[in-house]
Amino acid sequence: MANLIRRSLTTQAKKLTIGLIPADGIGREVIPAAQQVLKALPTELDKPRFNFIHLDAGFEYFQKHGTALPEKTLEILKNECDGALFGAVSSPSHKVAGYSSPIVALRKHLDLYANVRPVKSVISDKDINQKPIDILIIRENTECLYIKQERQVIDEATGLKIAWADRKISEYASKRCGKMAFEMALGRNGIRQNIPMNQRIWKSKPKVTIVHKSNVLSITDGLWRESVRSVKENNHKYDEVDMEEQLVDSMVYRLFREPQAFDVVVAPNLYGDIISDGAAALVGSLGVVPSANVGDTFVVGEPVHGSAPDIAGQNKANPIAAIRSAGLLLEHIGYHKQALSIYNAVDNVMREGNVLTPDLGGSSTTQQVTQAILKSL
Question: For the structural domain made of 115-294, what CATH number should be given?
Answer without folding.
Answer: 3.40.718.10
